[in-house]
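User: Could you check the structure of this?
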Amino acid sequence: MSVRKQQGLFAMFALTLGVAALYAFRLDAASLRGDEGFTALCAQWSLPAIVEGLRTIIPHPPLYHLFMRGWVALLGGSDLVLRWPSLVAGVLVAPLCYATGRHWAGERTGLWAAALAALNPFLLWHAQDARMYAILAATSLASVGFAVRLLEDRPRARGLWLGYVLTTLLAAATHYYALFLVLAENLAFLLSWVRGWHGRRTTLRWLAAQAVMALLILPWLLFAGGAMLGHAKDWIPAVSLWEYARRLALAFSLGTTIEMRHAWPWLLIMGALLLVGLAWSLGLGRRRERGAAEPLIASAMLWAALWVPLGITFILSLWRPAFDERYLIGCAPIYLLFVARGLAWVGQRRRWAAWALAAFIALGSAYSIYQYHYAPQHAKSSDWRGLVEYVVAQARPGDLLLINYPDPTQEYYNGGRLDYALLPAEYPVDVADTLAELARLAEEHPRLWLVPVRAGNWDRDLLVQGWLDRYADLERVQSFQGLEARLYHTAQRYTQTMRPVGLDLGGAIRLLGYDLRVEGERLEGDGVALGGQLVVTLYWEPLAEIGEDYTVFVQLLDPTGYLRGQQDSPPFGGAYLTSAWQVGERLVDRYTITVDPSGPAGTYQLVAGMYRWPSIERLPVTDAADKALGDHMSLGQVRVK
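Assistant: Sure, the predicted structure tokens are below.
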């Protein structure tokens, strides 16, 4: 082995260790996202259930989910364990880039390709994701590498043949988009056969490999193809060619954790290097490096492996939206190989220029990786782990957790510790059934926890939250990354904790009681500060049909009777007017009063009532004995300090 090759292998070994450390950093810092949660739940199914799911509802080949079933059974289902297979596959991409690049265009190209892969934010993101995409990237690149060597009439063809068949089958059994790669490889084979770049024996070996793979792949496609062909993802929009190219360039270059307005200098540079690499592969400006094979077959294979899957995916997306950057992750290492070839070409002429360009690319990658780890707007997932642990710690007997979107991550972190219900129960949403079920649950449970998620393909109008905001008392809101936990007290609870009133307005509306809060906490003996905000919750019950829309007033009067704070508004901010109220409802209505900061400290009087607009005629107030009490209700005293 030459000294140069030894140095290259040592550099590659050190780089691989660095990749492993980088990819393992904060591996379990983020909660599992929705698809990862599905991976975790699917891994707990029986083998027949997984196979049946793959046949009917899961649009993926069987390898990943069957492997994860055994992996979790062996090592458990923690976040770390679930993400380790992707981590290992992701680490392998860098040495595979080195091996493929070195064989195609020499040592420098291989090392540059490995370095680019090591720092690529897109590959790192998926190497820390409990899904199949990092495995797809590694197996796709390995398949291309074996395909090149198999077509070059090299010695030890039996081992190359076996390696090609195995890695290609692994890719195809990981994700259906790998079939586009198989087509690309066969187009490259067809070109090399037409050009006479390999002999008859190699042709027969290649055809035998395709026959074996077809015999192994086709039965599964016939068995489960319906789920794949019939599956539609409503969240994938149609894209124009420009948008398609822009999103892919950003993902393959700097990942999805950086905005385009910041990324364009890097995209221009990497795009230029890509063009140089493509031109070199066509024989333009080529200077063959020591140790590199004649790159005709490799260049044809890499061209096909990059452009054929990209082209097919775009054409398919015109018929049915089917584009997401991660589906094409198998093309990302090929893209980086061409960029690396461009860097090596620059380095042959101006070494300092190549290093300067590489440093600039590394700077952009580092920024994107930082954004991935620490920027809330680019957080990998919503913090279901923290939210569920919080609710479990705060829950009381009889509590119920309401989920308005079927996110499997909640179920994974919950692990049966909390009773929960999914409402709406299905999509399209049956509004009447959903509201009836909410009313039933509110009768059965004194406290309801809600995690509202606005999803276009489920509860897009936040129907559940809207109902609870109207008929239950919002006790507490706790925010987490991308989520919030809202604790509501239902009527059986808030009627026990409210300050009772029991006065009627106009003979048609009863104020059951009220509640006072300052900074989210119930007002007890401390009072409210001058300039502070007092939240007044009014609990209404309609006694008869109301033919008019009234306006509510809530006022705070100082010891001299001077008005020091008020809010006048239709009930619920105008969202639910009194003319729409139904007899027997119990409604929870909230108002916020800002205390005049220039007023005196002391004991203030809180009053409320309703009036007609625009006449400002107040509704008469009566007690349970129908005794007239004037035109407003005195709710009690508030200490202002």
